[in-house]
Amino acid sequence: MSPERLPSYAEPLGSFSRTPSYSAEPGLYEQRLALNARLLPQPTGHFLKASKHGDVKLRLSAQDDEVDLPVYGSGAIIEGTVELSKVDSVSSVEIKVEGHLELKEKGEGGHTHHTLCLDTVLLWTKDANNTVCPSSLRFSMTLPTEFQYEGRSFPLPPSHQTKLDGLPGFSAIVDYSISAIINKPHSINSKKLGIHIGNTIVSTPFIYYPRTRPILPIPSPLRSEAGRFIERPEWKLYESVVKVNATTGVQDIGVKFYLPVSRIFCASQGIPFHVTFESDAHSLAVFLPYGPTGTSGKLPATRVQVMRQSLVDVKHATIYSERANTAIWRVDYIGDAVFRHAGDGATHTSFSGEVKIDPIKVMGFHVPGLSIQDCILLTVEPPEGTNAPFVGIREVIPIRLTTDGWSEDGSGIAAARRSSGSSHRKEVPK
What we know:
This protein has helices at 10-14, 281-287; strands at residues 45-50, 56-63, 71-72, 77-84, 92-106, 111-125, 136-142, 146-149, 152-155, 160-164, 169-183, 188-190, 195-197, 200-208, 224-225, 228-229, 235-242, 253-260, 264-266, 271-278, 302-312, 328-345, 348-357, 365-367, 370-380, 393-402. It is mainly β.
């Protein structure tokens, strides 16, 4: 979707104060993922990366067999070995873990780079008591769960890349890597390349994939009587009005839209909702072709979708800036609803439905200069070029998506493993 057609975010973004930002401890609708090692044993495979001539190997343990890249979760323990077939003239051996966020704007030429994590562990160094390097060196490192920027803490973002082609446009990359560095005594420091020429470096990217889940299950559906839904505290009501064009002789249509109050949903499960349209009988009859089951155009005029906004702001380098907006964004629709007729009355018609989300790996997150956020979008948009009696509406409701579904005892999370860590970043609002 082009930036020119992006819906107004003034009201929804202002309402984000109702979904507070991340905190170090679980909030009202949050909890850390539990691990259930008895039900979900650790992977026993290895990921192997060798140097060009095969004399240095980086072997990472607790990985699934035949993975393209190693995968780690929040607070993960990275374990493995560095294997050397030639140990002569080795002065030291190091392991380095790095994470980077790089943002580029096209047209304006803006560019920014943040180091998300940087940790180096010395595995062995030559001295009077250790003159010969071992052929195998074990290591164990723990990934941080947060990084610091201008005195503030942010959750470590998942591996991700996105871009917006054209002008203005942007590219955003979050990537991580682990390297084994074999230092030689006569290496030459190249400041231009940022390495010591003569050393051997074996490096591989890895995927950082933090797991999350709702603390509450999806509530049971609302019951209806005479075509009206009976409200309950577990469901939040959002009201809007479909206005009529002048001189049409019909009345406005009131819209009652219900979502689970937490607004936290597993991305691989459907998002349930209910909606009721209210007016007099004549106005409802006129509205019917523009309703969820109407046939006023190629696409239904009434839709419920999941909308994802990827926003980059290189100049301010923070999504929390209150100054003039210099952000560039793209919008993707990652889910569409199916409606079911739930009942009618003389002055109302009701529907239930579910939004199925396209397969995604990365959930929403916020870091300086880059924001990935998801919303439910309720639209009533009469087809262009028609003399529709109604004016369209766009209701945008922020939500959070999680990698896993709710579980009462914490079991059943497929990626629960030692390499995924026992502390998990929270992706959900309070």
